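Lecture notes, unit on binding sites. The following record was shown on slide 14. It pairs a sequence with zinc ion.
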Amino acid sequence: MSNFSHNCPHCGTKKSGFRILANEILLKESYIGSGRTTQKQILACFCKCTTCSEVCIARFQIKDSTDFNQNFIEAALHNGSFARLFQVTSFIPQPESIAVIEGISERVRSSLENAEQCFVAKLAPPAGAMYRTALERATLELGCNPKDPLFKRIQSLSSSLPETLIKLLDNVRIFGNQSVHGNDDDPSLEDITRAREFALLFLTYTFELPEKIAAVEKRLSRD
Ligand SMILES: [Zn+2]
């Protein structure tokens, strides 16, 4: 039986159930001025996701600011009122956040956003396919021939991009291919984590940085 619900940072399940395995009441001291301090009770819990069985640490505070003790917590856990009485104030680990790159077109941004949402939800194959699409769209904006396959487009960028970046891009292409080709095994989440890192690096280097540099130059020329 779960005690409260929260988005799981491990399996990505929205509002997954969590079961509290152990808890401890902590006192948080805050300075309120003129040498005075105030103390607030914090409840730290070691809990387990009922979807994936991975563990997390959650901190809670009581919603109506009354004092509580161990018996009160045990009773709340026992009679099912815990989620109504306590609210989460922090959760460890934090779920992966969605990356936002500046300076990219609406078309690239939309496929990147889809890729990021799949990545955060730990859906490796669709994330891989969407990072590849973002890359494909970005190459078109860099003037690559739309009739060329992605492999050829990436190679044609070798005169304007560092060699390492070309190699990284080719990896995004390969992981993306694995995601959509029925004969290949699905890419793992580790593969897609790397593909994501490479795709974000490429988009930052190619679109975001030049835009930021141009903005700084513009500001300098005004001063
Ligand atoms: Zn989970």
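Take-home: The pocket of zinc ion is lined by residues 8, 10-11, 13, 16, 49, 51-52, 54 (CB under 6 Å).
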